[in-house]
Amino acid sequence: MRLDHLSYAAGPDGLAGTAQRIGALLGKEFVDGGMHPRFGTRNMILPLAGRTYLEIVEALDHPASDKAPFGQAVRARSALGGGWLGWVVAVADITVLEQRLGRHSADGNRHLPDGGELRWKQIGINGLIADPQVPYFIEWDANTGPHPSTGASPLWSLHSLEIAGDPQRVSEWLGETVDAPLEDVKVEWVAPHGTPGVVAVQVQTPNGLVRI
């Protein structure tokens, strides 16, 4: 397992406005990522070094966003003003998690602006909704397009996460120590004073560390 990406729900300024605002802080523009037809969402992404990336995601006015757990989670976070939705861990074999969690993974796909498609399986969105400190899991389909981090500049990289929560609880959810999937990323655990979850992310940029 490894840290794959972080999701940020668009705020009142919408997907493009949120991406422009955060991109200006980081000194790099987000790019159009495309649409998730199964979830009723769309995103813009910022590739980072180390095979990670940031995504800003927005729920569409579409029935899928009301039915799919991911669409529901995005819509709910945006309704609260937007902000960090959660963190995502990549796994090589999601069937191990299906057996441990006692449920099936969901198929996901993203239609890219160039006409291509990315496909994957994911599990754990309902866990994230119930307890925002825990991640959800993704297994990428190697037969589809390149990973969203492809083309990332080495000058922009994920430095650290600040998570309000209990590392023991997260370790239990992961099925192993919480440090294992985050070996290249520092995690700072803070006591929650409200809803647990990702509080902030620090990104290394050419102009130094930027905290979002």
Structural write-up:
The protein has 212 residues and is α+β, with helices and mostly antiparallel strands. The protein has one domain (2-152): 2,3-Dihydroxybiphenyl 1,2-Dioxygenase, domain 1, CATH 3.10.180. The protein is built from six helices and twelve strands. It is globular, with a radius of gyration of 16 Å. 24% of the residues lie in helices and 39% in strands.
Quick recap:
The protein has 212 residues and is an alpha+beta fold.
Keywords, separated by commas or semicolons:
212 residues, four-stranded mixed sheet, 12 strands, globular
Give a topology summary.
Elements: E1 2-9, H1 14-26, E2 31-36, E3 41-48, E4 52-59, H2 63-67, H3 69-79, E5 83-90, H4 95-101, E6 106-111, E7 117-123, H5 125-130, E8 136-140, E9 157-164, H6 167-174, E10 186-190, E11 197-205, E12 208-211
Parallel strand pairs: 1-4, 5-8, 9-10
Antiparallel strand pairs: 1-5, 2-3, 3-4, 6-7, 7-8, 9-11, 11-12
Strand content: 35-45%
Structural class: alpha+beta
Question: How confident overall, as mean pLDDT?
Answer: 93
Ranges where pLDDT stays below 50 over 5 or more residues in a row are none
Strand order of the largest sheet: 2-3-4-1-5-8-7-6
Return the CATH architecture.
Roll
Shape descriptor reads: globular
- What is the N-to-C succession of helices and strands? EHEEEHHEHEEHEEHEEE
